[in-house]
Specification:
Layout lengths: L4 E7 L3 E8 L6 E4 L3 H14 L2 E8 L4 H19 L9 E8 L2 E8 L5 E5 L6 E2 L2 E2 H15 L2 E8 L3 H20 L16
Helix pairs in contact: 1-4, 2-3
């Protein structure tokens, strides 16, 4: 079986990000962005998505928006690359994940057709030092660079931290299912014969 590893380095005048994703790893996770809540969310993604992840991101201009965006772009590209041609995968994944009073759902299709609908229902302007708009932008940038169809929705909740954490965990659990191998699947999981 071919290794499913994605490696991406993104260097701009604003940031420097390096990511290694191993979909079939042993649960080794190292995430360093300089933003503790972002580290926590990405660590949760790898932990509950059950893949190895090494991610280092540094800001060159001190602007959090650029760091959040470029981290999501590089992570999405690495996850996309790790899927290879997507032969033999389950392809679809769905999860409903509670986080105390909050509930989030995610539905994924790992087809190479980018679409996303993300509803985080965040009310506060900032959560753990990251702006509401940057958290939404993280999810959107990740989805755009994954090259998949992704629907993530917070159904209800009161605590914005819990809402965002439920959303990333729901995405992670749906990803784990969709990216796993289907023992019955032969080739590309599509009637078109291509993704």
């Amino acid at each position: 079986m071919k290794s499913r590893i994605g490696r991406v380095t993104r260097k701009t005048k604003e940031t420097e990000v390096s990511v290694v994703v191993n979909l079939d790893g042993m649960g080794k996770i190292s995430v360093k962005t300089g933003l503790p809540f972002l580290d926590h969310l990405i660590t949760s993604l790898a932990k509950h998505g059950m893949f190895d992840l090494k991610l280092n991101a540094a800001s060159k201009d001190g602007i959090d928006h650029h760091l959040v965006e470029d981290t999501a772009i590089a992570l999405g590209n690495a996850m996309d690359e790790s899927l290879g041609n997507r032969s033999g995968i389950v392809r679809f994944g769905y999860a409903s994940v509670p986080m105390d009073e909050s509930l989030a759902e995610a539905s994924l299709d790992l087809v190479k057709r980018q679409y996303h609908k993300i509803e985080l229902s965040i009310e506060r302007n900032q959560i753990e030092g990251i702006s509401k708009e940057d958290l939404g932008h993280f999810f959107r940038s990740l989805a755009q660079n994954l090259n998949i169809c992704m629907h993530v929705s917070v159904k209800y909740g009161e605590n914005d931290h819990h809402k965002v954490e439920a959303a990333i965990k729901a995405f992670a659990v749906a990803w784990k299912t969709a990216a796993s191998f289907d023992k019955k699947q032969r080739g590309i999981p599509s009637t078109k014969g291509a993704m």
